[in-house]
Design brief:
Layout (H helix, E strand, L loop, with lengths): L1 H18 L17 E4 L33 H12 L1 H4 L13 H4 L4 E5 L3 E6 L5 E5 L16 E7 L2 E7 L19 E10 L2 E9 L8 E9 L12 H10 L19
Antiparallel strand pairs: 1-2, 1-9, 2-3, 3-4, 5-6, 6-7, 7-8, 8-9
């Protein structure tokens, strides 16, 4: 019996070791690891990066922040709490249809497609048709550009991991629906690592000395969509909001995008 127990334990250890073996992706024509495909995050960080209880329309979920809590500076925490209280009308993405920023766009409940070329990787998102070109060369941060909703990105490869350095943000995006936010000093380093034919690990390291007491990291799994004949579709929430405004169901949250044919009140 003792010998049988040792054999079973040994087999279990081998299985565990095999499960932890590093996945080696195939290569694309340019020689880079293959991250191509249509991917999507499916989890609770869409609503809140931290642990949270359920509420109307929001499922409970475990957090994706390493260590559990986002390390806010005291004054910044007060602003986060204010954002939470006003989230229904203050969320730049949900209330105004603005671009979500990075890393939030990866956590949106919409698929995105990764394409690879010799000099850059491109990510096209179904949400608003956002398109990020992650060039491998070029000045970064670029001194000739202003701030962006999606930041300015430069990428490089570390083994089988695509590492993306993102800077030059504006301060108008949130990380999630509950008001976790940043300033225009935000600096993000993303890491995309394929872990199997159908899964990928996405990590984002966040730095912002105006809002956080230290750098912090979040990590989520991404899943390759496998439906036959799948392709990205269209989601343009400005258009849908204007249609609802024309019916009198909502009031447009912007004045700089007037709806033609609707008289001003």
């Amino acid at each position: 019996m003792k010998g049988y127990f040792v054999m079973v334990v040994g087999m279990a250890a081998c299985v565990a070791a095999a499960g932890q073996a590093q996945y080696t992706p195939s290569k694309v024509a340019g020689g880079q690891p293959d991250l191509t495909g249509i991917w999507q995050y499916m989890g609770p960080a869409t609503y809140n990066l931290e642990d949270h209880s359920p509420s109307m329309g929001v499922p409970a979920g475990y957090g994706v922040v390493e260590g559990g809590k986002i390390p806010y500076l005291p004054a910044a925490l007060k602003q986060r709490d204010k954002n939470f209280q006003e989230r229904a009308t203050a969320d730049p993405t949900e209330a105004f249809c603005y671009r979500p920023g990075v890393p939030r766009i990866t956590l949106m409940p919409f698929p995105f497609q990764i394409l690879e070329f010799p000099n850059y990787t491109e990510i096209v998102y179904e949400y608003l048709g956002v398109d990020r070109q992650l060039f491998y060369k070029g000045k970064h941060p670029d001194p000739d550009i202003d701030t962006f909703w999606m930041g300015d990105s430069r990428a490089h490869w570390e083994g089988n991991t695509l590492v993306v350095d993102v800077a030059n943000f504006n301060d108008q995006t949130w990380f999630d629906r509950v008001g976790n936010y940043h300033s225009d000093a935000l600096h993000v380093v993303e890491r995309y690592t394929r872990t199997s034919p159908d899964t990928m690990t996405y990590e984002a390291t966040i730095e912002d000395p105006h809002v956080f007491s230290r750098a912090w990291k979040m990590r989520v799994p991404l899943y390759r969509r496998q439906e036959p004949n799948l392709r990205l579709l269209e989601y343009q929430c400005h258009t849908y909001m204007e249609e609802e405004a024309a019916k009198g169901h909502v009031k447009l949250p912007w004045s700089h995008l007037p709806l033609e044919g609707v008289p001003e009140k």
